[in-house]
Amino acid sequence: MSLFANVVARDLRLALRQRGDAVMVVLFFVLAAMLFPFAVGPEPNLLARLAAGVIWVTALLAVLLSLERLFLADFEDGSLELLVLAPGPLSLTVLAKVLAHWLTTGLPLIAAAPLIALLYNMDVSALPVLALAMLLGTPSLSLTGAVGAALTLGARRGGVLVPLLVLPLYIPVLIFGVAAIDATLAGLSARPHLLFLAAIFLVMLVVAPLAAAAALRQAVE
Amino acid sequence: MNMHRFANPGRFVRLAERILPWSGALAVLALAAGLYLSLFVSPADYQQGDSVRIMYVHVPAAWMALFVYTVIAAASASALIWRHPLADLVARASAPVGAGFTFLALATGSLWGKPMWGTWWVWDARLTSVLVLFFLYLGHMALSNAFDDQSRGNRAAAVLALVGFVNVPIIKFSVDWWSTLHQPASVMRLDGPTIHPSMLWPLLVMAVGFKLYYVSIMLLRVKSEVMAARLRARSMAAVEAT
Amino acid sequence: MSLFSGRDLVCVRGDRRVFAGLAFDLPPGGAVLLSGPNGSGKSSLLRLMAGLLRPAGGDLIWDGAPIAADPEAHRARLRYVGHLNAIKPVLTAAENVAFWARHAGAGEADVGRALAGFALTPLAHVAGRLLSSGQRRRVALARLLAAPGEVWLLDEPSVGLDQASLAHLSTAIAMHRAAGGRVAVATHTPIDMPGAQTLALADFADSVPLTVGSDW
Questions:
Q1: Cys-Cys link to B134, which of A174, B86, B102, B151 (CB 3.0-4.6 A)?
Q2: Contact A83, A95 (CB under 8 A)
Q3: What is the spatial distance between Cα C202 and Cα A96, in angstroms, rounded to a whole number?
Q4: Phi, psi (degrees; rounded to nearest 5) at A156
Q5: Tens-place pLDDT, residues B15-44
Q6: How close does chain B come to A194, measured CA to CA in Å?
Q7: Would an 8 Å CB–CB cutoff place B228 in contact with chain C?
Q8: In this predicted structure, which of A22-36, A88-102, B108-122, B200-214 has the lowest mean pLDDT?
Q9: What is the ipTM of this complex?
C-alpha cells in the first residue's frame, strides 16, 4: 500500500473510531446557522437573501473548529516525528492527511448544507450550485487550514492563533462561494465564480502541502 | 562552521551605524518638506476641498503597507532558503512598522471617508483589501511571538509570510470582484496618472520620506535585536561560568 | 564496507551550543552507547543522526557521501524510537505496529513476529489506550522488528521496561547487529550490548556561548 493511501486509511479509521469529533463539527455548523434567524428575525425573504452567506460563514467556522485535530494529536503522541522521518515526500503525507480531514469534515458539511438552505427558505434551484461551490471551495479550506494548524504546533496559544492566521486567507473562498449562489438566484451564470473557486483550489493544492510540510519539519525540530 | 552566522551581524551593525544618521536626517527633511508642500503649497481639490490633503499621508502609507509586506516576504524566503539570521531579524523588525503603515492607511482612509462619503467606513475594495492586509500583519506578528524558542517563531512566521504573499493578489482580486458585484464602481477615484503635477510632487516627496523613515526604523530595530542577542549570550556565559 | 559517521558535529538549541566537535563511527554490526547527564545532548544527537535536526556545523556521512545529499535514502534505512511512543489510543497494538510497518514500505508480514519479539502476542488486539506504559514502550519497540531498517536510533528505549522486556530488547539488538544492522542508543540504564563503544557527551560539552568572542 502506498504511503499516501496508508495515511488516508489510518486517519479515516481513527475518525471512524472517534466519530464524535466529526459529528460535533456538523452539529456546530447547523447550530450556528440556526442562531441567525433569532438575531435578524424570521422574515422569509430576508433569510433567503442571507442563506448563502450564512451557510458559507458557518462552514468556515466549522472547518476552523476542526483544524486542531489535523496535526495536534500526531504532534503530541510522537507520530509526527515518525511521519517526518518516513521515506517519501512529506508534502504527500500532508496531502493525505488533508484528504482524510476533508472527507470527515468538508463532505459532511456539504451533506448538511441543503438542510440549512431549506431552513432559510433558499430557492431549491440553487441547491446544485451550492453543492458544487462547496465541493470546489471546502478543499481549499482544509488545505489552507492545514498550513495554519501546522504553523501553530507547539505555540503558546495555538488554538487562538489559528483563526487569526487562517480566516483572512479564507476570504476569497467566501466571496466566490457566496457569489456563485447569488448569481444563480439572480438568474445569471455561476460559471465564472465556480471557475475561480477551482483556481483557488489548484493554487492551494500546490502551495499548502509545501508550506505545511515546511511547518511540520520546524515543529519536530 | 556556519560563517555568516557570526560574520555578518557585526558588520551589519557597523554598516547600520554609518547609514542611520543619514537616513534619519533625510527622512526628517523629506517628511518636513513633504508636509509643507502638501499642506501649504499644493492646491485644494475643486470637488473635495482641503480634505484631499489627507491623500498625501494616506496614499504613501498604503504604498508602504504593500512595500513592507514584500520586503518581509523576500526576507522570509532568504531566511528559509539560506538560513540567514539577519533575514529573520529584518522580517521581524519590519512587521510592526508595516502594520503601523497599514493602520495609518486605514485610519486616514476612514478620516477621508467621513467628509467624502458621509460615513467613517465604506466597504470599498481598496479599504477592504488594506483591512485584510492589516490582519495578515497581525497574524504574522502574533505567530512570530507565540513560541518560547524565538528562532522557531521566526521560521514559522517566515512560512506564513510566504503563504500570505502568494495569497495577497488572490485576496486583492477577489475583493475587487466582490466590490464590483455589490456596488457600482464609483467612490474613490484618484484620477490615476492624470494627477496634476502640483499634487504629484508633494505625494512623491512624502513617499520618499515614508520610505526613508521605514529604512531608519528597520535598521534601528535590527541593530537592537543584534544587541539583545549579544546581551543574552553574555548572560548565558555568566550562567555557564558559575 | 559502508560506514555511518559524523565529523565535527555542532548542535545548537536556542541560544545555546549543546555540543561541538563531536564525531562518531558506526560500521555495520556496530553499536554506540550515548551517555551523559540530562541536557548533555543525547536526544539531540539522535535527532541529528535521524535528520530531524540540522547540525549547526559538521557533516553526517554515509559511505563517503554526505547524508544531506540524499536525505530520502537515509530516512529509508532508519528506524527511530523517540521519547514518545506514537501509539494511537483507539487502534489496537497490532494495528499500531502494522501502520508503521506499512509506512516504512514493509507490508504486514512481520507484524506478528515483531509483536512476539516483545511478548506482545496476547495483547495484539488490545486498544492502545488500555496498555500500561511499559506495554506501550514495547509496542513502540516492536515497530523496529516489523519493518527491517539498517540503522536503529533508540532514545531511552528501556524506560518503563521490566527485566524480561529488557532481555527482549537486548536480544533484538543483538540479532539486529548480527545481521549487519547498527544501533545508537541513548540510555541511563545499562543495556547489554557487547562491544559497543561509549560516547560520553559531556566530553564535547561546549560552554562557550554562541556569540561571545565572535563578531556579533
A1: B102
A2: no
A3: 42
A4: -65, -40
A5: 888 999 999 999 999 999 999 888 888 887
A6: 13
A7: no
A8: B108-122
A9: 0.91
More confident residue, A158 or C77: C77
Q: Report how far residue A34's alpha carbon sits from residue A55's, in angstroms, rounded to the nearest whole number.
A: 10
Decide if B1 touches C, using CB distance below 8 A: yes
Residue type, B150: Q
Q: Which residue of B has its CA nearest to A174?
A: B174
The residues that bridge with C199 in the sheet, in sequence order, are C34
Residue C117 CA to residue C98 CA, distance in Å, equals 14
> What is d(CA B86, CA C76) in angstroms, rounded to the nearest whole number?
35
The DSSP output letter for B102 is H
| B202 sits in which H/E element | helix B197-241
Q: What is the largest CA-CA distance in chain C?
A: 62
Whether A114 contacts A127, CB under 8 Å: yes
**Which cell is B202 given?**
508633494
Asked whether C192 and C170 are in contact (CB, 8 A), the reply is yes
CA A213 vs CA A85, C34, C46: distances in Å: 12, 30, 21
Cα nearest neighbour of B238 on chain C: C209
> Is-contact B133 B66, C-beta < 8 A?
yes
- CA-based nearest residue to A153, from A217, A92, A63, A199: A217
Helix (H, G, I), strand (E, B) or coil at C79: strand
Confidence of residue B240 (pLDDT cuts 50, 70, 90): low
- Give the angle B125-B131-B133 at the CA atoms, nearest 5°: 105
C-alpha cell recorded at residue B71 = 520586503
DSSP-assigned letter for residue C122: G
**Residue that is written with C-alpha cell 566537535 in the block:** C21
Of A202, A199, A204, A196, the C-alpha closest to A146 is: A204
Q: For chain B, give the number of residues.
A: 242
Buried b (16+ CB within 10 A) or exposed e, C115-135: bebbebeebbeebbeebeeeb
pTM of the entire structure? 0.90
Residue type, C67: I
Decide: C15 and C209 in contact? Cβ < 8 Å.
yes
Reported CATH class of domain C28-53+71-200: alpha beta
User: What pLDDT sits at residue C195?
Assistant: 84
SS3 (DSSP) at C35: strand
Average pLDDT value for residue range B45-54: 77
Cell of B100: 503601523
Which residue is associated with the grid cell 558588520? B11
The interface residues of chain C toward chain B in range 191-210, judged by CB-CB distance below 8 A, are 207-210
Helices (H), chain B: 3-36, 55-82, 85-117, 125-144, 150-182, 197-241
Give C210's contacts in chain B (Cβ within 8 Å).
233, 236
- Angstrom distance (rounded) from CA C155 to CA C185: 6
B118 has a pLDDT exceeding 50: yes
3-state secondary structure of A76: helix
Domain residue ranges of chain A, discontinuous segments joined by +: 2-220
What distance lies between CA B220 and its chain's CA centroid?
Answer: 15
